[in-house]
Specification:
heterodimer; A: alpha/beta; D-Maltodextrin-Binding Protein, domain 2; 2 domains; four-stranded mixed sheet; 55% helix; B: mainly alpha; MetI-like fold; flat
């Protein structure tokens, strides 16, 4: 009996194994559904091409041609628009596109920015990357360096190169002359403040870093822990300390990188900036901000517990969601400078959209992106975070449909300040053009670790900056 | 005929073992061998090409001060967490073993920390301990216990002990449940005889309880040593190894090297060193367990 049972089980196991082998050998194991549908599409195209010759009728030939031109396939789109309205707008645009192209399927997957970076860097080796995605400006060069994304000049020309602002296109154009991304929107880091608190303590909007320090200190002391003058985020799971340091250095029109692409943390301005933010942390910031990431820092401002912050127009929607009663008391201004004169260099983030080399259907990705820029899709998307997302297309900026938004009307000063900042800045360390070193400097958290080392271990600023610079240099060399 | 039967029996056993072998080969052997291979290369996470560089990665790691700091932190993390989990788990198991009524409810309540996914625990604790709006720091101030809100996760002095406390709270229930099961296998008549002979509670524990449960406790310690030494999620989700590397352990160091700095070759070398160390520790543990087993059989 036992032997029979064993034989029966053996046969079952063998049959299952063979069945599994048969099903996997039925097609290449690595073939994705998108590839399968691409093959089907090619087959159909071939059939369509052959059709006119078989029938010889013009009408049928036209039908066949339309069928051949029709988009068909499945794509995966990763984006990092985790907030509800933006996510819904993207989803709505994808659904409308799929209605227009019934043979297309767009799978949308949403990841936070941090997760997105981990996901694409780890997925690259296994080919587990999407067909198209959003990215952070600093990551595009890394993607180009890894030979992971496609040039999009044909798409840009098709949309109309002249319709885009020049600087985002330049920022996404690599040394080989190809442009590898299209800007979906732009924003700039400006100084956000609380009008009511400035009024309460009889303070002017600071124009110099000294004035900024005085104002932050006055508010911290006056509010006795209820509101902090300026929280300084140093968490190693984000790039916020790098943003703060870059804002200080940029205010003196300098860069965290040299023209020959070496880290520049030991210049007099950089050392001054590091010391400035360390002092600001000690005097006017919650101790916990040593671990703060973007969301922690922004939440503090949204909840009215931070008087000053450096961020984009996204702060308006954040405050609206958390403490709407503060909406009348927030505004932004240009970032302070050392002497209060001249135009600072801002951190400008031109949010790119890229198409991955692994994609079996780049034509669908490009068609969807082009469709997305149509005003009916693009303006509602920009309105999902008004003032937060500034148009990448010139004509939209002055489009009455875009300007006809309550938030945009209310925060006219913020719109002007951010628009001005957009024309005076680049992404972190991209002052000398897009380079992989800029991505490393922004994404490797070396600067955040340096700040923590100074604050917690008491390492002298010069020593910590020197060590961070050496570490960055090593990372730059490894990336070559 | 007999030879055929033997062959069929042997094949049958192989067929039954095959799935397990496949799982081991695919899920363990491949990652381990590829890690060993990459540890001798300059493999970068996002670059396809790489070359052999011999022992350079090992030399770089062993001469890196941060690695040794992480290693020492890892040893402290493991030793204190394990001792704490064992103490709390043992105490709770002894107490539960004596409770006759409602022990099921207590057992369920005490197992709660273990039953939740670590991501939920990590974010809950992060919220509770937040230095600005966290419940615990603010209540301590309101009750007058602290003058200012204690910075559990951002103070250089408090971050590590806080994480160790959370790990003890999280791991003790597993110890408790297993030790309690072992305690319930101890024959009660031995305690009665010991009582008649006038043995004290401590003597009963040392001569009856402990010899009966030490194998279970030993195996638990072996397992927990490996898990705690390798634990990543709780630390990464709560402090990410910070502030100022105060909670940086070797697995976090390996992750930062491989996934942060994308030096996959170097990161592989760290994991190989970690594997060797754990193999050494486990062999010592198993030698002790074997001795105990021999003692109890003799």
């Amino acid at each position: 009996m036992k032997r029979k049972l064993s034989l029966l089980l053996m046969t079952a196991l063998l049959a299952t194994t063979l069945a599994a082998c048969t099903s996997s050998s039925g097609g290449d194991a690595s073939t994705t559904p998108a590839e399968t549908s691409n093959a089907a599409s090619e087959e159909k195209t071939q059939e369509a091409d052959e059709a006119p010759a078989d029938t010889g009728t013009t009408q049928e030939a036209e039908v066949a041609e339309t069928e051949a031109d029709e988009l068909e396939g499945e794509i995966t789109f990763w984006h990092s628009f985790t907030q509800g309205p933006r996510m819904e707008n993207i989803q709505a645009a994808a659904e409308a596109f799929m209605t227009d192209h019934p043979k297309v399927k767009i799978n949308i997957e949403t990841y936070s920015w941090g997760d997105f970076y981990t996901k694409w860097t780890t997925g690259l080796a296994s080919g587990n990357v999407p067909d198209m995605s959003t990215a952070r400006a600093g990551e595009v060069v890394e993607m180009i360096n890894a030979d992971a994304i496609l040039p999009l000049d044909d798409l840009i020309d098709s949309i109309g190169r002249a319709r885009f602002y020049e600087s985002p296109i330049q920022e996404m154009t690599y040394s080989d002359g190809n442009c590898y991304a299209v800007p979906i929107y732009s924003h700039a880091f400006v100084m956000w403040y609380r009008k009511d608190l400035l009024e309460k303590y009889n303070l002017e909007v600071p124009k110099t870093w000294d004035e900024f320090n005085e104002a932050a200190t006055a508010i911290t002391q006056g509010e006795n822990g209820e509101v902090y003058g300026c929280s300084v985020p140093m968490g190693t799971n984000d790039l916020y300390a790098t943003c703060f340091l870059d804002t200080y250095v940029g205010s003196n029109r300098e860069s965290l990188i040299t023209q020959d692409r070496k880290p520049n943390l030991t210049s007099p301005t950089a050392l001054e900036g590091i010391q400035y933010w360390v002092d600001m942390y000690k005097n006017n910031s919650p101790a916990d901000s040593i671990n703060f990431n973007t969301l922690d820092q922004a939440t503090l401002y949204y909840q009215g517990k931070n008087a000053f912050d450096f961020n984009s127009g996204f702060h308006i929607s954040g405050v609206e969601a958390n403490t709407p009663e503060l909406l009348d008391y927030i505004d932004c201004a240009p970032v302070p400078t050392i002497n209060g004169d001249g135009n600072p260099d801002y951190i400008v983030n031109n949010m790119p959209m890229v198409v991955w080399k692994n994609s079996a259907h780049p034509e669908i990705c490009k068609a969807f992106i082009e469709y997305f820029y149509e005003p009916d899709n693009y303006i509602p998307f920009l309105h999902s975070v008004p003032v937060g997302m500034m148009p990448a297309l010139k004509e939209i900026t002055n489009d009455p449909a875009f300007l006809n938004n309550d938030t945009i009307k209310k925060y006219q000063n913020a719109m002007e300040t951010i628009s001005d900042a957009l024309s005076h800045g680049t992404y972190i360390a991209m002052e000398y053009g897009p380079c992989v070193e800029a991505g490393i400097l922004a994404n490797q958290r070396v600067i955040e670790n340096m700040f923590q080392d100074i604050v917690l271990n008491g390492t002298p600023v010069e020593e910590a900056a020197q060590a961070a610079e050496e570490q960055l240099l090593e990372l730059f060399s490894a990336a070559e | 005929m007999r030879g055929n039967k033997k062959m069929i029996a042997s094949m049958t056993s192989w067929f039954f073992v095959l799935p397990a072998i496949l799982v081991v080969v695919l899920l363990m052997l491949y990652p381990v061998t590829s890690s060993i291979f990459y540890s001798f290369t300059n493999k970068n996470l996002i670059k396809a090409d790489f070359r052999m560089i011999g022992l350079d990665n090992y030399k770089a790691i062993l001469s890196d001060k941060s690695f040794w700091t992480a290693f020492v932190t890892n040893l402290k993390w493991t030793a204190i967490s394990l001792a704490g989990q064992l103490f709390v788990g043992f105490t709770a198991a002894l107490a539960l073993n004596r409770i006759k009524r409602g022990s099921g409810i207590y057992r369920t309540l005490l197992i709660i920390p273990w039953a939740f996914p670590s991501i939920v625990l990590a974010f809950s604790w992060k919220w509770i301990l937040n230095g600005v709006s966290g419940f615990l720091p603010n209540i301590l101030v309101k009750l007058g216990i602290c003058e200012t809100a204690p910075q559990f996760l951002s103070s250089a002095e408090l971050a590590f002990p806080t994480l160790v406390f959370l790990n003890i709270w999280f791991g003790a229930p597993l110890m408790m449940v297993n030790i309690l099961s072992a305690l319930q296998t101890v024959p009660q008549d031995q305690y009665e005889s010991a009582q008649l002979d006038g043995a004290s509670g401590i003597q009963s524990f040392c001569h009856i309880t402990f010899p009966h449960i030490r194998m279970v406790v030993g195996l638990l310690v072996v397992l927990r040593t490996i898990w705690v030494f390798n634990s990543f999620d709780i630390i990464y989700l709560i402090t990410g190894g910070g502030p100022g590397n105060k909670t940086m352990t070797v697995p976090i160091y390996a992750y930062d090297t491989g996934w942060g700095m994308r030096m996959l070759g170097k990161s592989s070398a760290v994991t190989v060193l970690l594997l060797l160390f754990l193999l050494l520790v486990c062999s010592l543990y198993f030698r002790l367990l074997n001795r105990w087993e021999k003692e109890s059989t003799s």
